[in-house]
Please model this.
Amino acid sequence: MFSANRRRFLRQASSAGIGCSANLVFGRFLSAQTQTSNPSEVVRVFVDSRRTVAPLDRNLFGSFLEHLGRAIYEGIYDPGSKLADSNGLRKDVIDEIRQLGVPIVRYPGGNFVSGYNWLDGVGPKQDRPRVLDKAWNTLNNNQFGTNEFMAWCKAVGTEPLMGLNLGTGTAEQAAALVEYCNVDQGTRWSDLRRKHGFEPYKVKHWCLGNEMDGPWQIGHMTATEYGLKAEDAARQMRYVDPSLQLIACGSSGPGVPTYLEWDREVLEQCYDYVDALSLHRYIGNTKQETGEDSSKFLAMNLSMEKQIAETVAVCDLVRGHKRSPKKLWLSFDEWNVWYRARHGDARNGHGQEAPHLLEEIYNLEDALLVGGILNSLIRNADRVKLACLAQLINVIAPIMTNPNGLFRQTIYYPYSWALQFARGSVLNLLVESPGYEVAGMGQVPYLDVAGTISADDGKVSLFVLNRDLSKAHAIEVNWQDKAPARTLSSFLLTGDDLKAFNSFDAPQKVAPRTLDKPSIAGGRAKFEVPARSYAVIQWGS
Ligand code: AHR
Model:
C-alpha cells in the first residue's frame, strides 16, 4: 500500500514539473505545485514526512530595526515615556517582541548605516554628538547606540545582525567595531568597550554594507569597487574574529538596472571571503507593479521566488568560475510590502528627531501577501538561511506605538504564525490546485501551500494562502506515510474587505479567528479555506 502511494506521489511530483507555464517562469516554487483545470475541484496536498527540502533555520523569520523615523527613538527607546524601564526601553514593546520570539534583528540600517560612525553611539551619553543623518534627513542624538541595542536584544531574547558602514566608513572602522563587540580584552577597541562597562557580545552575523548598488546610497560605488572593499573589510574582520558569518551586498531588487550583473561582479571579487549574499525586495499594489489588481498582487511572492532562483544561479555561476567547494547561502535581509508611505515627506525627516517616516498602514491584502512571502521563504530554506521582515516597529512595521501603547498591524499575524508554527524541516509538498491567469506571470495556483515537520515531536504545520478573491476552496491533505492523530491548532485571517486595516481606534478590525478543525479519516484531512484568506493548521499525535 505504502509503496503504491509513494510511486503515485513521485509520478505526480515529476509530472508537475512540466505541466504549466508558471513552472517555467517561476522555477523552483512550482516544481511541486500544479494547476488543475477545473476551478471547483478539490485541492490536494500530498505530505510525505520523508520528503523534506532542508532543515528550517529560525533566522528565516528575523526582522530589522533602523535608525529611521520612530523605529528606535519612541519605538523601542523612549526614556521620557511612562512605559519605559530604567534604561529607557519601552517595556510593552519588549514584552511584545519577546512573546513573538523574533530570532534575529538587523541593526542599525539600512540606508542610515552608510553614513553612520559607530563611535558616535558609544561611551558616556552626555558626550555623544547630535548628528544629521543624511539618508533620512533626520537628527540623531546618538543616545541609543551599539551597547543599548545589545541590551535590548538581551531583553527581548534575540540575536543581533550587525550592519557595517561601507559607504563613508572604512574597512578598518568595520574591523574596529568587530573588535569592540567580540574581543574579550587587551586590545584598543575591546578595552574601550570594557571601559564603557560591557562584556563581549560575540556577534556572529554581519552585513558588509547596505544596498551599495543603489545610486541613493551614501557612498554608492561600482560593483568592482564594492567587491574589493567588501573583501578588504572581510579579511580585516576575520583577523579579529575568524568565526564570523559575513554577508555581502547583493542587488537591492530586480528593478535596478544592474540586477544580477552587480551580484556577479561583486562575487567575482569577494566570493572566497564571504558566506552569504543579500537580496532585498519591497512589493506594492501599484499601477506600475500590479496594475492595482489584487489578484496579481497576491501572486507577487512568486516573483520573489524567481528573484531567489536567479540570485542562487549567479552565486553558483561564480562558484563554478572559482572552482570553489563553498556554497553561499542567501540573506533576504529586507522584505515587505511598501508603497504608500514611500515618497516625499514620508521619507524626509526635515532635520527633526524621531519624525514620522515610512509609517505604512497595512491592510488585509498586505497581510495575505506577507503570508505568501513567508511561504516562499519557507520553500527556499535550502538556500535562504536568514531573512528580515523590514522593519519591526513603527517604520513599515507589524507593530505601531504611541505614547499610550501599541497595536498590531494586519501583517503581524502571518509573521507571528511562521514564528510559532514553522518548526523542524521544510516539507517537499506536492500541491494540486486550480489556477488563474496573471498578466506577465502565466498560470498561478489559487492555493499556495508551504509546510514544515518537526522531527522532535512529529508536528506538521501547513500554511495556506487562498488567492481566490471570490471562492472558498476545499482542501484534502493526503499523508503518504503515517497520518497524524489529531489537529492541534487552526487559525485563519480573512475578511470581506481587502482594504480593511487596524488602528489605535480599531485594533481588532483585521484579526485572526479559528478555522474549523479539519476532520481526519483514512489518512486524509479535509477542510475548507474561505476566499481571500491565509491559514495555518498544525497536526500532531
Ligand atoms: O527599510 C527601508 C529602507 O529600504 C532601507 O533603509 C534601505 O536599505 C531600503 O532601501
